[in-house]
Amino acid sequence: MRLIIAILLPWLAFFTIGRPFAGIICLILQLTLIGWAPAAIWAAFAVGKNSG
Description:
Largest sheet: none
Order of helices and strands: HHHH
Number of domains: 1
């Protein structure tokens, strides 16, 4: 479920794993259309690293 959130709402994924500062940075990155893809990849990587 967190992986789906990481792809659709990357900034929210950081808040669910307890990294609010990274979530704010990710939200700023996601606000640009070009930055959404790197934000989603970064969030998916962070969620995967946190779950293991």
